[in-house]
Amino acid sequence: HGTGTTLGDPIEAQALLATYGRGRSPERPLWLGSLKSNIGHAMAAAGVGGVIKMVMALRHGVLPKTLHVDEPTHQVDWSSGAVELLMEARSWPDVERARRAGVSAFGISGTNAHVVLEQAPVVEQPVREGGDAGGVVPWVVSARSDVALREQAARLAEQVTALPGVSPADVAAVFVFPGQGAQWVGMARELVEQSPVFAEALAECGRAFEGLVDWSLDEALGDEVLLARVDVVQPVLFAVMVSLAAVWRSVGVEPAAVVGHSQGEIAAACVAGALS
Fold this sequence. Notes:
Layout: H1 8-18, E1 30-32, H2 36-39, H3 46-60, E2 62-63, E3 83-85, E4 90-91, E5 100-105, E6 113-118, H4 146-161, E7 174-177, H5 189-194, H6 196-209, H7 217-221, H8 224-227, H9 230-250, E8 257-260, H10 264-272
Parallel strand pairs: 1-3, 7-8
Antiparallel strand pairs: 2-4, 5-6
């Protein structure tokens, strides 16, 4: 918990020494750290902050140091058990079992909790046997004109030629989501009429906006005044971008990665599944 108080810290430290610190070899002490030296006292969020810190420590196999500590407090009898303060970052000791950590969150109001976190099981990925590398791999290229098509194909050829170690089968689609400025009045109108997938995805975005804004998505697409407003054009572009992604996916184009610029990062995160 580590509030840095003369009351709370000694009580908690002595409790840890009397429990986890007993029956341990001095060569393998319980390592003790505190989140508050990283981010201060987050009040009601302090507990979940400690959980996040330890989840990341479990994941990376590193015990992070407790910041701004010159020496352990003299108000605790550290010799009564095998508990040591993390004065420096350390690699997580390899003890041939899952890593485990305890996280405490105590409040003066009586909201007290202690949870034990354990490393997730390591899932071995099956090794895929390589098949016959022969055969033709089609790369479908599209453009608005013959000239643009040749230029696009030339760029693709140049990119692949510059990476001789890349297999044609590894070349994949990436969805790029731009920031503000890609809009025009009347955009998406034809797609709404021609693509049921696009129309439904756009309508879903419109329903999500209801109650949060004083304009409708359908109206904003054709309104030059509305599209000139930052608070309108950004959610409109988000709706168009995620709806376009839905169209591509409906015809089998699945991105291997997504990239977003500026507010396009929000649409990219949504398409990647990081945001609902």
